């Protein structure tokens, strides 16, 4: 396969996401401009200019009309996808680490970091009619998180619950009616870097610094599968059409200079969903991979790395013909 | 999903080509191809022509996607022309997914080498030179006893010895590939020190034998097996290609006793070894013959 290399960022990629149909690919990086690309030919549609610092998290709503981005400049911005203009800005007291639109697109959730005199909090906001006034609007719900900060976030079924991954490896399910903890599990030992839902949202995969990615039931948080590697896992995604997961990771960026690329293991690694066994690798990045995403049609995937590039891959025929021996 | 709608747009796949001619940038449309030609002046005043060929494809997509395709560019991309901007979109080199078969199988391959050889014909393909058993010499159960014990390991412990390359070496203890300074080495090496003074061993070519016409695949271990029966050895040197570690075809053996060396020459000269006929003689004293 010939990957398209998207070079629109000056610093390392923090997150990439496809929209629902997969025709657009959104990317954010530690520079201050999230980008949007046509995933088919790698043409850049535009950049969202307005943030003052690192952009940690992005999300796109179901209809690809609104785009959400949260960053280290203590803001969460809601953008118009078509024009790239800011519709609303929410100012927080610490950097925004995770954000997501709800399935319905009526609400959005975001979590900010623990900082000096600022507790980690999850905010649920109404995003049906966004304008400048949203910065003054009170959130629907504010959940203070006392112990470990939230590092990733997903909406549960029917927008009734929220799943959060924490710095200490814990996963908590919140009831949004009451704002109370519903369920929690601690299967990871270190920070959960990323969580992604399967296509039907019955399962989600977590990527953790403890060198594993794990598959959970999104209803009762039951641990289903564990994918082991030798390096921190920064991101993991589940294929929408095959029983495959892709893991991106590699050494910590701070350790990269002291090791060669060969042993850095900066490949995208494909595991069988059920058998937990690695069956394929794709090389390409010069540093750890920070975010991976499957194209919603399952015929390609993208990865964004510390090197600042997003690589868009379309699978060869051999990938679809590959039979896993068991 | 909304109804399907046909639209024509600049879906393009970029292919880079090289060519040669003159100035202003041109854009030619031929059938389904758009050919962009640009000229650039490099640092050393070298003119370069860049020809980019884009394939224009028609795709039938849902209305919402078609609509999004018509959106105007914004932000940093506001000045970009239709189609991918080569500054931000690069067509990468081909990469392939490396398929990994299950790990057990990976290890099996090496083990199977012997089984395969056996299966190929009669069962005497592999024959141990020490006990004539059906295994590699290095895997002989008698390897570390009898013959081997006192005289061993000079070749093996040589700091420059490469890690195992031939299946014959697989069975060796892992420690052999690791460098150990001479004073830390096991008994074999220290014994050597006791028996002969280093100074004497270094310059004394009188007991050195040169073996030539060795095959490429000869290893230190093979050589050792070959000459061990004749008597105690002070030093073994097998000339190896630097990059590949394969044998250069000759070796020097320093025996402890001259009559052992003479015996070795008498026996091994014109001896068939690994489909080659060895030539063995006294090492000729040259200015820097001793490696």
TrEMBL record, chain A:
It holds the Pfam family EIF3I. Coiled coil: none annotated. Keywords: Cytoplasm, Initiation factor, Protein biosynthesis, Repeat, WD repeat. WD repeats lie at residues 6-47, 48-89, 143-184, 282-312. GO terms for cellular component: eukaryotic 43S preinitiation complex; eukaryotic 48S preinitiation complex; eukaryotic translation initiation factor 3 complex, eIF3m. It is found in: Cytoplasm. SUPFAM superfamilies: WD40 repeat-like (SSF50978). GO terms for biological process: formation of cytoplasmic translation initiation complex. InterPro entries: eIF3i, WD40/YVTN_repeat-like_dom_sf, WD40_repeat_dom_sf, WD40_rpt. GO terms for molecular function: RNA binding; translation initiation factor activity. Component of the eukaryotic translation initiation factor 3 (eIF-3) complex. HAMAP family: eIF3i. Component of the eukaryotic translation initiation factor 3 (eIF-3) complex, which is involved in protein synthesis of a specialized repertoire of mRNAs and, together with other initiation factors, stimulates binding of mRNA and methionyl-tRNAi to the 40S ribosome. The eIF-3 complex specifically targets and initiates translation of a subset of mRNAs involved in cell proliferation. This is Eukaryotic translation initiation factor 3 subunit I. It comes from Aquatica leii.
From TrEMBL, chain B:
PROSITE patterns: RRM. GO terms for biological process: formation of cytoplasmic translation initiation complex. CDD domains: eIF3G, RRM_eIF3G_like. One of its GO terms (cellular component) is eukaryotic translation initiation factor 3 complex. It is found in: Cytoplasm. Belongs to the eIF-3 subunit G family. This is Eukaryotic translation initiation factor 3 subunit G.
């Amino acid at each position: 396969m010939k990957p398209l290399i998207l070079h629109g960022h000056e610093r390392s990629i923090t997150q990439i996401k496809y929209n629902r149909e997969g025709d657009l690919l959104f990317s954010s990086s530690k520079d201050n401009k999230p980008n949007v690309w046509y995933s088919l030919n790698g043409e850049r549609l535009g950049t969202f200019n307005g943030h003052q610092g690192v952009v940690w998290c992005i999300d796109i709503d179901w209809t690809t009309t609104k785009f959400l981005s949260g960053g280290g400049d203590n803001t969460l911005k809601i953008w118009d996808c078509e024009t790239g203009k800011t519709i609303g800005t929410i100012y927080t007291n610490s950097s925004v680490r995770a954000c997501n639109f709800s399935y319905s697109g009526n609400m959005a959730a975001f979590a900010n970091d623990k900082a000096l005199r600022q507790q980690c909090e999850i905010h649920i906001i109404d995003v049906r009619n966004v304008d400048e006034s949203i910065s003054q609007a009170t959130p629907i719900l504010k959940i203070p998180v006392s112990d470990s900060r939230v590092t990733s976030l997903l909406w549960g079924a029917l927008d009734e619950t929220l799943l959060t991954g924490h710095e200490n490896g814990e996963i908590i399910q919140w009831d949004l009616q009451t704002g109370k903890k519903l369920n929690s599990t601690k299967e990871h030992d270190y920070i959960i870097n990323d969580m992604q839902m399967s296509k039907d949202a019955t399962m989600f995969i977590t990527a953790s610094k403890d060198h594993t990615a794990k598959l959970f039931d999104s209803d009762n948080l039951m641990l289903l599968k564990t994918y082991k590697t030798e390096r921190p896992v920064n991101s993991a995604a589940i294929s929408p059409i095959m029983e495959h997961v892709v893991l991106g990771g590699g050494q910590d960026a701070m350790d990269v200079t002291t090791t060669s690329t060969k042993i850095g293991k900066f490949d995208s690694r494909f595991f069988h969903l059920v058998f937990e066994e690695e069956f394929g690798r794709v090389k390409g990045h010069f540093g750890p991979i920070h975010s991976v995403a499957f194209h919603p049609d399952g015929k390609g995937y993208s990865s964004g790395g510390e090197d600042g590039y997003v690589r868009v891959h379309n699978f060869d025929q051999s990938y679809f013909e590959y039979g896993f021996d068991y | 999903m909304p109804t399907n709608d046909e639209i024509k747009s600049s879906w393009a796949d970029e292919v880079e080509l090289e060519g040669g001619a003159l100035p202003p940038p041109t854009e030619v449309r031929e059938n389904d191809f758009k050919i962009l030609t640009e000229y650039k002046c490099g640092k050393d005043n070298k003119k370069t022509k860049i020809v980019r060929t884009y394939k224009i494809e028609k795709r039938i997509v849902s209305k919402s996607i078609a609509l999004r395709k018509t959106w105007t560019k914004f932000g940093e991309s506001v000045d970009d022309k239709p189609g991918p901007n080569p500054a931000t979109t690069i067509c990468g080199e081909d990469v392939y997914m490396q398929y990994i078969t299950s790990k057990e199988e990976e290890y099996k391959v090496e083990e199977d080498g012997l089984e395969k050889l056996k299966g190929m014909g009669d069962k005497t393909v592999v024959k141990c030179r020490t006990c004539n058993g059906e295994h590699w010499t290095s895997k002989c159960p008698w390897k570390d006893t009898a013959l081997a014990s006192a005289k061993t390991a000079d070749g093996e412990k040589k700091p420059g010895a490469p890690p195992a390359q031939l299946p014959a070496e697989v069975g060796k203890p892992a420690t052999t590939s690791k460098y150990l300074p001479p004073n830390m080495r096991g008994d074999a090496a220290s014994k050597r020190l006791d028996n002969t003074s280093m100074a004497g061993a270094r310059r004394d070519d009188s007991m050195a034998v040169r073996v030539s016409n060795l095959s490429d695949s000869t290893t230190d271990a093979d050589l050792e097996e070959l000459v061990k029966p004749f008597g105690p050895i002070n030093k073994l040197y097998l000339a190896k290609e630097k990059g590949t570690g394969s044998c250069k075809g000759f070796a020097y053996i320093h025996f402890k006793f001259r009559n052992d060396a003479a015996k070795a020459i008498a026996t091994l000269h014109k001896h068939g070894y690994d489909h080659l006929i060895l030539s063995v003689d006294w090492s000729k004293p040259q200015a820097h013959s001793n490696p």
